[in-house]
Each structure stands twice: as structure tokens, then as C-alpha cells.
């Protein structure tokens, strides 16, 4: 389990996280891959857990520089950002999006997409844009795929809901009358705005075979098993993050991490990603 992101940290806590018997801060720092000079504060948010395999791209708001965030995996899929605000937040930085101006896009590459995948982001929704809000969205001439959460005043409900559109069909958990394919289980009203909270939650979308699931931290909130194929169109198109690619339909949010895997992670691996991505929020 990750160490806390503020307050006093003891040598004992660090030893437990590392599984070490040493009481030397230098020995513990070296085991964690940290260089001198040593400081207890270096262990804020530290976790000895490692990333699951199959990660194709990862973005950390702390690496924001000059309108870009480098891909921490080293694969080179740079994220370009405009119309956003970088917030230092006392050493726990995040990116704040803004309605009408933000655009965050990821360089196109086929390895981002697999027949199975898991996409994760540590974020906190901070409001409504009054229209569709998206998490990942890409269009190339015609809609290819969209994962969205906001439905304004439809069926007398304005709330965040799981939704996934492909070039072939739309999959949403609403009740009937929406003019699209309605499947899955609707979130209860008490949890409809589950992600609009602090600290940041990990939102995960996982495709495994013919099953698509959404997760809030390690809680499964929605399952859809009704499709036989999932077509997301051109595998080399630009991907919009928290907005339509090219801008528009911005999700007002603050986010710290985002990661993409080209396989379906296990439930336990989603828990590992949560530990690693939300320890700083």
C-alpha cells in the first residue's frame, strides 16, 4: 500500500513498504531507487508496487512542460495540451481543464489499441459542461469511438453515466427512450456522480473479449456483454483525452495520471494501478 502524501512518515513505514529490515535511510532510499541527498519527504506517496505489463502509454501531470506531457513509458506517444492550467498543489500537481478552451490529444499509434485493452485515469470531475463530457474520444470523418459520462437533462436525469460508442453501435446503461442501444445496469442515483469527488478516484474502462466493464477505484460499477465485435475505426488516429480530439466537449476535471494498456488487466492489477495512480491525489 502506498505511503501517505503528507504528514509524518516513519522509518518503520518505509521498511514495511519496501520489505526491508534496514533502519538506514540511505539503504532504504537506495532500495527505492532514490539518489542522495536523502530525505524522508522523498517517500511521500511512494509505493513499492510495480506497473502491470502491457502499458503502452502513461502520463503524469508532474511532467507537464511547454504544452506537452511526455509518455513515461518511453514509447514516445506525447500528449499535447492547450487551454489547460497546471496547478503545482504543494508538490502534488495536477492539470485543470476548462470548458470551451481545453484540448488534450495523444499522438496516433496503432499500439495504443488492442483487441482487448484497459484505460485508466486518476481524476476528479469538477463540474458540468452542459453537454456531452468525454474521457477518451476520437473521430476521423465519422465517429469511431467515444467513452463518455455526461447526459444533460435526458430522461429527467443529469448525471455522469458510463457510455461507450464505436463506429458500429452505442452502448449506454440508460433506461429506454434514448434513441440508441440501451443495455447494462443504470447506476443508482446516489452513485450517479460518484466520480465528482476528492481525493481523486481511478476511473477504469476494461475490454476483455466481449465484456466491457467500468470501475470506480476497485469497485465494478457497470458491465456490458452484448456486443460481439468492437470496432474503433482507424487504429492510427489521434486520441482526445477529456475532450473530443481537436477540442470541444471538454470534461471539466483535474487529473494527475492517465495510463493505457493493450490488454485486459485483472481485478487485482486494477487495484495495483489505483495504488500507484491515486497515492498523490
What does this structure look like?
With 281 residues, this protein is mainly β. It has 3 helices and 17 strands. Mean pLDDT is 77; it is low at 152-158 and 175-194. The protein has helices at 11-18, 25-31, 267-278, and strands at 55-60, 64-65, 68-69, 79-82, 85-87, 94-96, 103-106, 117-125, 134-140, 142-154, 157-166, 170-171, 201-208, 211-216, 219-224, 239-241, 253-261. It has a 9-stranded antiparallel β-sheet with strand order 2-3-4-7-16-9-10-11-12, with no helix packed on it. Strands 1, 5, 6, 8, 13, 14, 15 and 17 form an 8-stranded antiparallel β-sheet that branches. It has 2 domains: 1-48, no CATH class; 55-278, Jelly Rolls, CATH 2.60.120.200. The longest helix is centred in the C-terminal third of the chain and has 12 residues, at 267-278.
Could you outline the blueprint of secondary structure elements for this entry?
Layout: H1 11-18, H2 25-31, E1 55-60, E2 64-65, E3 68-69, E4 79-82, E5 85-87, E6 94-96, E7 103-106, E8 117-125, E9 134-140, E10 142-154, E11 157-166, E12 170-171, E13 201-208, E14 211-216, E15 219-224, E16 239-241, E17 253-261, H3 267-278
Antiparallel strand pairs: 1-17, 2-3, 3-4, 4-7, 5-6, 6-17, 7-16, 8-13, 8-17, 9-10, 9-16, 10-11, 11-12, 13-14, 14-15
Amino acid at each position: 500500500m502506498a505511503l501517505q502524501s503528507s504528514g509524518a512518515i516513519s522509518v518503520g513505514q518505509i521498511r514495511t513498504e519496501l520489505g526491508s529490515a534496514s533502519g538506514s535511510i540511505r539503504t532504504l532510499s537506495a532500495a527505492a531507487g532514490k539518489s542522495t541527498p536523502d530525505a524522508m519527504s522523498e517517500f511521500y506517496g511512494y509505493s513499492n508496487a510495480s506497473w502491470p505489463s502491457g502499458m503502452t502509454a502513461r502520463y503524469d501531470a508532474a511532467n507537464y512542460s511547454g504544452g506537452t506531457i511526455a509518455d513515461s513509458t518511453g514509447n514516445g506517444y506525447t500528449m499535447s495540451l492547450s487551454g489547460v492550467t497546471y496547478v503545482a498543489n504543494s508538490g502534488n500537481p495536477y492539470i485543470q481543464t476548462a470548458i470551451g478552451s481545453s484540448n488534450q490529444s495523444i499522438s496516433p499509434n496503432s499500439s495504443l489499441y488492442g483487441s482487448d485493452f484497459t484505460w485508466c485515469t486518476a481524476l476528479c470531475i469538477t463540474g458540468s459542461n452542459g453537454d456531452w463530457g468525454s474521457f477518451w474520444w476520437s473521430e476521423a470523418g465519422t465517429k469511431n469511438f467515444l467513452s463518455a459520462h455526461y447526459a444533460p437533462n435526458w430522461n429527467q436525469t443529469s448525471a455522469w453515466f458510463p457510455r461507450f460508442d464505436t463506429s458500429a453501435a452505442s452502448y449506454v446503461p440508460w433506461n429506454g427512450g434514448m434513441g440508441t442501444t440501451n443495455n447494462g445496469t443504470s447506476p443508482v442515483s446516489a452513485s450517479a456522480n460518484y466520480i465528482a469527488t476528492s481525493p481523486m478516484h481511478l476511473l477504469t474502462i476494461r475490454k476483455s473479449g466481449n465484456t466491457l466493464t467500468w470501475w470506480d477505484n476497485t469497485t465494478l460499477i457497470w458491465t456490458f456483454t452484448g456486443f460481439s465485435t468492437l470496432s474503433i475505426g482507424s487504429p492510427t488516429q489521434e486520441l482526445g483525452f477529456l475532450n473530443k480530439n481537436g477540442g470541444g466537449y471538454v470534461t471539466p476535471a483535474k487529473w494527475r495520471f492517465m495510463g493505457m494498456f493493450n490488454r485486459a488487466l485483472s481485478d487485482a492489477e486494477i487495484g495495483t494501478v489505483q495504488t500507484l495512480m491515486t497515492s498523490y491525489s
